[in-house]
Specification:
This protein has 397 residues and is α/β, with parallel strands linked by helices. It has 2 domains: 245 residues, Rossmann fold (3-Layer(aba) Sandwich); 103 residues, Cytochrome-c3 hydrogenase, C-terminal domain (Cytochrome-c3 Hydrogenase, Chain A, domain 2, Irregular). 50% of the residues lie in helices and 8% in strands. A 5-stranded parallel β-sheet has the order 2-1-3-7-9, with helices on both faces. Strands 4-8 form a two-stranded antiparallel sheet. A two-stranded antiparallel sheet has the order 5-6. Strand 5 and strand 6 form a beta hairpin.
């Protein structure tokens, strides 16, 4: 009986994978016919940057695993990467410091993620474009006219809502950020919030928040993909675009709109200092013997037990290091309202310290897990609805 159940399960899984692969192939064919032609051939770009075919295939394997897909999807990831530069992107700047753009631009070695970001089809990006004033406005209008329903809108920064949004005005016509964001997102294929400012409001929304700054989802009543972080890791943005290219929709999201493949586990779960936490070996103050031995940073404020992100797996600076590895605790920057809820940043949260740390942490994790499951269920329902409409259309034709 057990053998029969296992065989049945294997057949069901294989069938599901075949359906996903077929769906991927159909969508990539559709994107191939609908998207603008690439400015440069991706394979030629890789060759010019000194990236071998073997390195590219290794990257596709890593990226497939990162996206929580089985190995059979590696060819699809490779094909999606080759179309990366064909996706029109309109990048809006709201109330922010441009740090997320800087994180995506700054690199010392041309790895494949960076090459993809270098070749992305930016139709509008206020920081990078040469045009200004009315010329920049015309670039935005042209992008909205040329690619309705086909471009990806990326928003960096929170949107002030107080006084009808007049705390932030943009461009020569003096439009509010609220007006610009509403107009652009209404015509986009999907909206990605890059960084915690656009996702949750971040420091602009910290108390007392006189401008009533808010994340894009709250400001516009819109479903967004939230690539949280201050700044986020570029690989989480790259992976989200690849998922869109492969499946034509949003990845599975948790209850806060973050991709589950990137934000489904706590910093605490991946941390190389976790054994010291379990052994009760903590840094008591900066520069003590424990710090020299690489002990856990919880008592000097590390918010890793409360923070969901993949920083410890993908790391920063070409994958060399990340804050905890470098000697400073996590500040919880992928979580909503972290400037208020995680403060002070270099001291432990008091209720956690009094309640015994891990017990409180696990209760928080259980609550977020429930939210994640709800988010995945909603995503599955939405996907079923979308594909039902696709099937209905196909039957009518």
């Amino acid at each position: 009986m057990a053998h029969q159940k296992s065989a049945h399960y294997d057949r069901v899984v294989r069938k599901q994978y075949r359906e996903w692969l077929d769906r991927c192939s159909v969508h990539l064919d559709r994107m191939d016919s609908e998207l603008p032609p690439p400015v440069e051939d991706f394979r030629d770009v890789l060759k010019e940057r000194g990236v071998s075919r073997r390195s590219f295939l290794k990257w596709t394997s890593i990226m497939t695993g990162t996206l929580m897909l089985p190995p059979v999807f590696k060819p699809m990831v490779a094909r999606a990467a080759e179309q990366f530069s064909r996706v029109p992107v309109v990048w809006l700047h709201m109330a922010e410091c441009t740090g997320c753009s800087e994180a995506l631009l700054r690199t010392s070695y041309p790895n494949i993620d960076d090459i993809l970001l270098d070749t992305i089809s930016l139709e509008y990006h206020e920081t990078l474009m040469a045009a200004s004033g009315y010329q920049a406005e015309q670039c935005l209008e042209k992008a909205l006219h040329d690619f309705p329903g086909k471009f990806v809108c990326v928003v960096e920064g929170a949107i002030p809502l107080a006084m009808g949004g007049r705390y932030l005005t943009l461009g020569p016509k003096g439009k509010t950020g609220l007006e610009v964001a509403r107009e652009v997102t209404s015509k986009a294929a999907m909206t990605i919030c890059i960084g915690s400012c656009s996702a949750f409001g971040n420091v602009q929304a910290a108390k007392p928040n006189p401008t009533d700054a808010a994340g894009v989802g709250r400001a516009l009543g819109l479903q967004t993909v939230n690539i949280a972080g201050c700044p986020p890791n570029p690989i989480n943005f790259v992976g989200t675009i690849l998922h869109y290219l492969m499946f034509g929709g949003l990845p599975a999201l948790d209850g806060l709109g973050r991709p589950v493949w990137a934000y489904g586990k706590r910093i605490h779960d991946y941390c190389e200092r976790r054994p010291h936490y379990d052994a009760g070996e903590f840094v008591e103050e900066w520069g003590d013997d424990g710090a020299g031995k690489g002990w856990c940073l919880y008592k000097v404020g590390c918010k890793g037990p409360y923070t969901f992100a993949n920083c410890g797996r993908v790391r920063f600076n070409d994958g060399i290091s990340w804050p905890i590895m470098a000697g400073h605790g996590c500040i919880g920057c992928t979580e909503p309202n972290f400037w208020d809820t995680m403060a002070p940043l270099e001291k432990p949260i008091q209720d956690a310290a009094i309640g015994g740390g891990e017990a409180t942490v696990d209760r928080i994790a259980m609550g977020l897990t429930v939210a994640t499951v709800a988010g995945i269920a909603a995503h599955a329902g939405a996907t079923a609805w979308v594909h039902r409409n696709d099937n209905d259309t196909a039957n009518k034709e």
